[in-house]
Specification:
The chain contains 15 helices and two strands. By secondary structure, it is mainly alpha-helical. The longest helix has 28 residues, at 201-228. The mean pLDDT is 92.
């Protein structure tokens, strides 16, 4: 599939996610100022890769996108956005910029940013509980998201990431941090999409493995870009990991091996898709795009 086709498809999926998120916000009674902050964070110009992955995986196994997948994609986007808002806070990664504009706490203050992140996280679970049908699917999606975003998933990774600052680090520690911090939310997106498309257990296992592989590759690419990219191009502060003495792949294993590991994970991710045949070509193109990303 030509890259231009992938870009068009990604923009289309991002537009669908944005429309669904706006619908979610419009259907809830939210203080006008808080609503403005939530819109600022949710409507910032991100790629929507995780939420698009929900939609693509639903299409892959179900033949199309349904309303449940749209709601699930919006929930994943809200959780991802909350994590960025909190990541940027001075007590965490302390970044003044996100997606090319002032981070939420720089635009509205730290207290409002904390509350906005809390609101996005809880709203994600609310919308799954209220808008997904049947209830058995809602329960499954809630459990999947809670596990991968929670204390045994993304939070565990962020906790370990903070603890590993100013330490020598090992490749084993890095993989554990990145699996929890980043890969589990990619896995979550892929599996939630499969669940919305009525995937069988074998298909869900393949989607789970695919999501994990590309999530790890994505984080290695992110580590590399922090070293090689510019703040203007990345939309956030470049070189921040080194200044904070973060435990990253370039710092621990060097740039050359980091790139080798990224390519190997991408190869493994593509191999996992073999049982799906040509129907998974868009996901193969996603892998290729992640290897070529510059921001």
């Amino acid at each position: 599939m030509p890259k231009v086709d992938f870009d068009i498809q990604l923009r289309s999926k991002a537009g669908l996610v944005n429309d669904t998120v706006r619908w979610v916000l419009a259907g809830r009674q939210i203080d006008s100022e808080l609503n403005r902050v939530l819109r600022y964070t949710l409507e910032s110009p991100g790629k929507r890769l995780r939420s698009a992955l929900v939609l693509w995986c639903c299409e892959l196994v179900g033949g199309g996108i349904n309303r449940n997948a749209q709601v699930a994609a919006a929930a994943v986007e809200m959780v991802h956005t909350y994590s960025l808002v909190h990541d940027d806070l001075p007590a965490m990664d302390n970044d003044d910029f996100r997606r090319g504009r002032p981070a939420c706490h720089k635009a509205f203050g730290e207290a409002m940013a904390i509350l906005a992140g809390d609101a996005l996280l809880t709203m994600a679970f609310e919308v799954l509980a209220k808008e997904i049908d049947p209830p058995s699917l809602a329960a499954g999606l809630l459990g999947r998201l809670a596990e991968d975003a929670g204390a045994a998933g993304m939070i565990a990774g962020q906790w370990a990431d903070l603890k590993a600052e100013n330490t020598q680090g090992t490749e084993q520690l890095l993989r554990a941090i990145h699996t929890n911090k980043t890969a589990k939310m990619f896995r979550c997106a892929a599996v939630m999409g499969g669940m919305c498309g009525s995937a069988n257990e074998k298909q869900l296992r393949h989607l789970s493995e695919f999501g994990t592989k590309i999530g790890l590759a994505f984080q290695i690419a992110d580590d590399i870009l922090d070293v090689s990219g510019t703040s203007e191009h990345l939309g956030k502060t470049a070189g921040k990991d080194a200044k904070a003495a973060k435990c990253t792949y370039p710092a621990v294993v060097g740039m050359e091996k980091s790139r080798q590991l990224e390519k190997e994970l991408a190869r493994q991710a593509v191999a996992v898709l073999k049982p799906f045949g040509p129907r998974a070509d868009i996901l193969r193109q996603l892998v290729k795009t992640l290897l070529q990303r510059t921001k």
